[in-house]
Amino acid sequence: MRAELENKLYAAYPALYAQHTLPMDQTNMCWGFQCGDGWYNLIDRLSFDIAKIIATNEQLDPKLCTVSCVKEKFGGLRFHIGCATEEILKLVSKASEESFKICETCGGEGTERTSEGWIRVICDSCEVASQKKREEERMKLTTKYSEQMELD
Ligand SMILES: [Zn+2]
Known about the structure:
Strands 1-2-3 form a three-stranded mixed beta sheet. It has two domains: about 1-100; about 100-150, no CATH class. By secondary structure, the protein is of the alpha+beta class. The mean pLDDT is about 95. The termini are far apart. The protein has helices at about 5-10, 40-55, 85-100, 125-150, and strands at about 35, 65-75, 75-80, 110-115, 120. Bound molecules: zinc ion (ZN).
């Protein structure tokens, strides 16, 4: 996720994402949100709902209710938080289910696809764009390679 969006989430939920300033031997959050920009709204909504629960439940210690990892894995959203109450777990699994229908690139309606060994949720137009980009990169490499051959 691009830094501008990450910083918006850190600013909106400072307690929840307090771990993002910790070193990498203590948290995964130092790497930021390891997924595409398209999931920003989904993560924002999930963070909002969780922060509300933490704020209203006196049994929960906000210092322990911090997020240690947010990433894409096998196409879906993974979200690890220190205080996993049943209510919070339900929200996390609902968001994870939803992520399989949201394009990770643009946030539009996406479907699960496997491309070059990766499972990704992506929409038709982002898929076309990424194929085009890959093709262009391949062309560039081929050109570079043949230029190199000529030089040698
Ligand atoms: Zn898309």
